[in-house]
Write a structure and sequence with these properties.
Order of helices and strands: HHH
Radius of gyration: 25 Å
Helix content: over 70%
Shape: elongated
Largest sheet: none
Oligomer: single chain
Number of helices: 3
């Protein structure tokens, strides 16, 4: 085996592994889409927006 052949085999293996990971991610995305936000901050999105009116009042003085 030559160095070029070995290198090509490694690249093909790496590409196949990346394609498999991409396929698994796409399957997972289909299953979870609509239930969990893509950024993963579901708890944060459920909290009410912070009220900064009191702080603005202090800054205005």
């Amino acid at each position: 085996m030559t160095w070029a052949y070995t290198c090509r085999c490694e690249l093909e293996r790496k590409r196949a592994k990346e394609e498999e990971h991409k396929r698994l991610f796409q399957e997972w995305l289909k299953q979870t889409q609509g239930r969990v936000p893509l950024d993963g901050n579901s708890e944060r999105k459920m909290l009410p927006a912070p009220d900064f009116t009191a702080q603005r009042h202090l800054l205005a003085e």
